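Appendix B. Raw example, untouched.
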Amino acid sequence: MKTVLLLTNQLHLALKISSAGNKRNIFINNVSQFDKVTSLLDSYDFAAFIIDLNLWKTTTAPLKNIDSLKQDYNVPFVVFKDTLTNDEQSSIYEHHLDDFVYQPIDAEEIIIRTIHWINNYAKFSINTHKKKKKDIKTFNNFVVNLKNFKIIYNDVDLELTPKEFHLMYFLIQQSNQVLSREQIFNGVWKSDNDGDSYIPSRIVDIHISHLRDKINEVKKDDNVNIETVRGFGYLLKNK
């Protein structure tokens, strides 16, 4: 499952975009302020950015900032705004952004266009990042070592199996957000083709139980917990 960053303060629209993304195996990580974007970039590998230009009164300054961001993180950038003048549309392309959507704003169209550009970047082997990815990433209470496949919690190596590592890393990247069992299975197991796809819920539940046991062995407070969302899935609380 690919993760896409969505910048908007329109909660209702964010939910629609998230729902449209989930149907197409895209996880939406939503933030409401531009200054929060940079704090996420070292921790997450975003496949694309979707940005709401309605956050600003004019588009001149934000387009410059977004262009600067794209120079460092060369992934698809799709923007949207209730109305766009011809000059604004030209300016979007002049700032090297990939696409735009304007009135009527449709969540499905935004996701379809975003996926189109993700596939185009992959098809033509466009480097997804100019900056070198860090081998060690910090997510609040967790330190993830991508080179050695280790996750440290409370200064203790959780000693995870390869599959537990991939599951835990997936949950950490979506910390504090509810995930369905299907989302988790698709994000961690779907590409395995190991013959177990007919019992995804059971697979997820068993591995979540193992992760809980390992976390609880070194747990010192309630800042971290894998919570069950009854009838739906799980949420990793990571405060």
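End of appendix B.
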